[in-house]
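BUG-248 | component: ligand-complex export | severity: low

The export step for copper (II) ion jobs runs without errors, but we want the raw record kept on the ticket for reference. Input record follows.
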Amino acid sequence: MWQLALSVVGLLAHHTQAHGGALNYTVGDTWYNGYDPFGPTTQDNDPTIVQRKWITNNPIFETSNLSLACNVPGTPAHASIPINAGENITAVYYSWVHTVGPMIAWLTDCKGDCRTFDPTGADWFKIGQEGLLWGTIQEGGWFQKEFSRWDGTPSLWSENIPKSLKPGNYLVRHEIIALHSENKPQFYPECAHLEVRGNGTRFPGIEYMAKIPGVYNMSQPEININIYLPGVSNLTVYNIPGPPVWRG
Ligand SMILES: [Cu+2]
């Protein structure tokens, strides 16, 4: 019994550390600094950090939580990532341990300087999403499981900035939705500032747009899901919620 109690404590401690998020970014061979939620507050004045501030790696549980946009507190970054439309933006995770649920990369137009931009009420569009690659919802190979390097080396998630996108300042939002708890989705979002360059002239129409919060609610079966329930666990299709991905 004593041994059992010890191992339960061990599991709990492990899970507390088990949450995570995007900690750095790369474009080509260039690395950009994210905000370390467990690092010093001197980061607040760091001119090299491109990521909005987040102070906890705990998930957000409420689909209506205002912090669903850019995590807690989501304070603007000082720097931004220069990127040409048509290039890939890569988010770097470490020791990501959850395995079930979709991952979605979003952009929103800062309509000026992202350092003064409040994403509340903004229109976001998807530039990429990753879901169930093979097998069943409960046991199959989700991208979330497949991309994670279980040895602690960086786990990389790349999505393309559509080549035709008009230049400007954007927030990029990387979101992992973890669905391993019955009917209790966990949202892990982080935002970074982008300066998109190029000769693009296009911008997605309203059919590609969603508000965050707003895009998810607990009456969506893909969000309020029990992946262990017979009739759900063995499904081989999972429809990622929200608008379609804009490919430019
Ligand atoms: Cu966790």
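Assignee comment: Attached the raw record above. The pocket of copper (II) ion is lined by residues 15, 18-19, 98 (CB under 6 Å).
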